[in-house]
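Q: I'm teaching a short session on how sequence maps to structure, and I want students to see two examples side by side rather than one. Could you give me a first protein with its sequence written out and its structure tokens following it? Keep the formatting plain so it prints cleanly on a handout.
A: Of course. Example one:
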Amino acid sequence: MSIIKIDMNSHEFQAELEKTVVFTDKVNKQFGWVYNPQAEVNEGVQMGLARNKMMYGKRFCPCFMVEVVDEKPRSVEDRICPCKPAIEKEIPEDGVCHCGIYCTPEYAQNKKIEMGMEEAVHTHSRGLTQEEAIVLLNEKELDSDELVSLLEARELGMVDFKLVDVREHMEWQMGHIKGADKLVPTSSFFAALEDAKLNRDENIILYCHVGSRSAHCARILSDMGYTKIGNLSYGIVSYGGEIER
């Protein structure tokens, strides 16, 4: 099974995307939610929902791995947008759904304030020493600044690792972390993994949109005997480094 490629510019996809935007508009209106103030989050989720509708016939949440069992697609916790965990737990408790597109008005307002503060106070931290880089590389969960620092350390030859994107081919085309080495989409995970020829004993860092698919893939790789797996906790949407488009 090869990597599934959907042409973002095709009439078929653009028509499905338009339907999906209408759908998410209706969801917000129905539940009294609003969109995330980070427009790229909403766009990414809407495109993922449209992609899954074309691939699987349902708008599975794009931040969770979809598996086909007995020719029937299913996702973790049966996450079909708007999913039950978001309605019953995530948005009432956290103010935002896991994929990040649906928010309470209060969460969205606070997020706007937070985004303004981050832009005002953001500064680059000093570079890592080799010892610090080695220690950090063996952490199971990494945040944006840590991955930026590790990529800088790799450029300087202090550490070595593979950065692997487990999103779909279309998402990779929309934008991926500069320095990413491999694309191993969850929709064709095992075949793409074989093609990627990753060493079971090398350091591998995974990332996806918000960190869910990559965390799931990290568990799969660990079960397969890969020993040094790291995960970008909050995905590419949290990443402050350079993105290639």
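Q: Perfect. Now a second example for contrast.
A: Example two:
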Amino acid sequence: MDIKANLDRIKSSFENPNCLLIAVSKTKPESDIQAAYEAGIRDFGENKVQELTDKAPKLPQDIRWHMIGHLQRNKVKYIAPFVHLIHGVDSLRLLKQINKEGKKIDRVIPCLLQIHIAEEDSKFGLDEKELKEILLGEELKSMNFIAIKGLMGMATFTEDNERIRREFISLRKLRDAYASSSLPPNTELKELSMGMSADYKIAIEEGSSMVRIGSAIFGERNYG
């Protein structure tokens, strides 16, 4: 597996060179992450807290770690001191917990709100009503230890590219609609985290500012 060659190929295909490439390193060894690091990548995504906290101390300290998986409230404290961005905030209760852990260590923790855009029930995320309640509600205003940077979404796992495009467009339009609202000082809807190995090109075309790519860089994962 030539990780550097894969990265060069992927980056050369980006329609928007300013879109951030997050290398999804879940289940992959530190040696693979180091290879991607040496090829210039500084942003890595993990979806399990245990794996993230095991890897982080063994690798270069200027790596920016992204928590991209479903995050349980009782696990927030383990990543609060160092996580660069939490992508999957899918409830007000989780947001409150992140703020609580940030307060304990006097650190503002950057977050994205995860929106359910797929036509699959298995995906996590807020619906538009829940998003509105968070963004325009009173509780968010008092959360001084979180910084909402934008929205995240996962498209349906399908070969129907037009369906995927519709879902990405819906997320962009949702972001744009609320970005023009009167939002609290701790909230800016600048980022759109959407697109993975199979659909990142469509995501970039539809305005993604960060894509989460794993298997196209590191090869298929071994869950055995």
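Q: What should students look for in example two?
A: Point them to this: The first helix runs from residue 3 to 12. Also worth mentioning: The chain has a mean pLDDT of 94.
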